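Batch job 17 of 40 flagged for manual review because the log was empty.
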Amino acid sequence: MKILDIGCGKRKVKVENAEVIGLDFYDKTQADVICNLEEGKLPFEDNEFDGIYSIHTLEHIRNLLPIIDEMWRVVKNGGIIKIWVPYFASSLAHSSLDHVRFFSYTSFYPYRIEDPTHYLWKPTTFKVKAKYNWSGHYGLRTIGKVIGFIINKIPRIYQRIFCFILPTEEVYFELEVVKTN
């Protein structure tokens, strides 16, 4: 199994029984490949990877849509792209001057073929799963698990009504690559 870690930084992800290729823009990291994602291209062959991990990287990219297309291109049909990003209502989303975008539970919905807002002009299609990750910091680990369970049962209600009252820190996406040809 071959995994791409986009924005690996100083610690590449560890995936059992997988070769992990680290990618970062900065050469003082564990990156195997140096790449500026703002250019909109990944330096890999079509269908080269079984999956991708991207942990708190995409919020730093201005030119994101071409990179989403590229992630889809380099992952095999049925492969999984795992993404962790700050949730738009959290203080984490606004904690760094180099955060240029924010994410909600529905950010990747336009890539679902069944979604009425699907990007019909693009072949890039995913089966999308999203989950809120509510913090267990500050001695709130047990209540955090309860809140996390509840908000993931009613994600749209949470996002419309409660997200600024009890803000989750991040949202996690699993994008299953769908290629029809």
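Reviewer: the log was empty due to a logging misconfiguration, but the result itself is present. The CA atoms of residues 151 and 157 lie 8 Å apart. Unflagging and moving on to job 18.
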